[in-house]
Amino acid sequence: QVQLVESGGGLVQAGGSLRLSCAASGTIFSFNAMGWYRQAPGKQRELVARIFSSGSTSYADSVKGRFSISRDNAKRTVSLQMNSLKPEDTAVYYCNVLQCRASCSNYWGQGTQVTVSS
Fold it and tell me: What is the pLDDT of residue 16?
């Protein structure tokens, strides 16, 4: 099992910045991918950004150029730097990791609230 603990959420004014971090612990071999999802009230959970074991990244169109994802394999952390925040970025942000060996397993953090005021 893998446990994920997020930190860094909070309240910020539009145009501001926040940095989310996620620390992994437990039975870890290597993560095929680490990422951040978000879910706003009344909406489905959506992918925000993802970083693969190769180092390649992918972003939702709505955050390209504003958000940046990074990982530290030694520390088993993944971070999301969020700049130029908009009210529509308000959501609960969830850390996610994908670990594959004989089979693949997805793990989720408990979520951290990000609120952007206008």
Answer: 98
Cα–Cα distance for residue pair 94/45, rounded to 1 Å: 9
- Strand (E) positions, 17-90? 18-26, 33-39, 46-52, 57-59, 67-72, 77-82
User: Residues 86, 59: contact at Cβ < 8 Å?
Assistant: no
Alpha-carbon 72 to chain mean position:
13
Question: How large is the greatest C-alpha to C-alpha distance in the chain, in angstroms?
Answer: 47
Q: Distance between CA atoms of 52 and 31, rounded to whole angstroms? A: 8
Structure tokens at 75: 């520390």
Neighbours of 92 (CB within 10 A): 18
How far apart (Å, rounded) are the C-alpha atoms in residues 68 and 17?
11
User: In which band, very low, low, confident or very high, does the pLDDT at 66 lie, cut at 50, 70 and 90?
Assistant: very high
- Say whether pLDDT at 29 is over 80: no
pLDDT band at residue 35, thresholds of 50, 70 and 90? very high
